[in-house]
Amino acid sequence: MSSLTFMHSTFNNCLNNYIYNNNSHDNYMHDNYNVYLWVTRTPDRKLFGYNLDLQSPNLREPLMPKTIDYFLSPMSPWAYLGHEPLHALIDKFDAAVNVISIDPVKLFAATGGVPVAQRPIQRQTYRLAELKRWKTFLQSPIIIEPAHFPYNPTLVSLVVAAAVNAHGADKAMEVTLSLMKGCWVENRNMGLPEEVKKSIDSCSINGEDLLKLAASDQISKDLEKNTQNAIEAGIFGVPTYIVDGELYWGQDRLDFVERSLLS
After folding, report:
1. Which residues pair with 99 in a beta bridge?
2. Tell me, what's the pLDDT at 92?
3. Which residues contact 6 (CB under 8 A, 6 or more apart)?
4. d(CA 52, CA 34)
5. Rounded to an integer, what distance in angstroms lies between the CA atom of residue 197 and that of residue 241?
6. In the predicted model, what is the mean pLDDT of residues 140-153?
7. CA of residue 227 relative to chain centroid, distance
8. Going from the N-terminus, what domains does the chain have, and what CATH number goes with each?
9. CA nearest 86: which of 157, 170, 185, 204?
């Protein structure tokens, strides 16, 4: 491992910018504690740390990598906005991820959700305002009102499930991002098989083969099971992240996901 940093301070309300091997990272600690914090990084720059030990310099258990259950629909702009920040957290904390695509139409029907076009105009207007804010905040290339939204999300959801089945979570994350960008960056109709194939092919996967798998009964059952599991877990929208049994809805909750990964 690389260098070890030892810090002992009195925390008053909020302390920002711990220094991890000369890299600044914002953390927020509340109340007044004398805290001994040991942190280091592995040579590949991933965080390796220890839990805080109040009033004592003795180390406690090292932070162990956790698993994030990531429930999503590639059609969701919020899932797109959160996808790359989530991936950054996965890399930073060496976390595992379960990529779980769901059928948003069935999820909404079961949990009281309403498609965008059926919402009151006030909600539609505020949704666009929020997308603009997040576009600016994240400096995202997202198109606020793409030409082909909404589209039928079934195929892209099946493709993500097929990618998990055939290629594992890491490749499924890549495929998911490509599908998301198809609508939200490239302004393509991702309800069309030929457009979906382009996105798959861009990930160095044979698009025809993955589309065949996505059309299979097994993948259809997987998607149905994913959606039912989401409903039973109390999920009502995407993206939703679950860490240690705790549910976080929306990409604007990734700060809390990070805190959970630190605990």
Report:
1. 70
2. 96
3. 36, 37, 38
4. 10
5. 27
6. 98
7. 17
8. 4-54 (no CATH), 67-262 (3.40.30.10)
9. 170
Contacts of residue 212, defined as CB under 8 A and 6 or more positions apart, other chains included, come to none
Q: b/e map of 127-138 (b: 16 or more CB within 10 Å)? A: eeeebeebbeee
- Cβ neighbours, 10 Å, residue 97: 19
Collect all residues with Cβ–Cβ distance below 8 Å to 122 and sequence separation of at least 6. none
- Record the tokens describing residue 229, joined without a space: 């599991």
Give me 68's structure tokens: 């994030």
pLDDT band at 61 (very low <50, low <70, confident <90, very high): low
User: To which residue do tokens 């996105």 refer?
Assistant: 199
d(CA 71, CA 237): 9
Gap between the Cα atoms of 9 and 25, Å rounded: 17
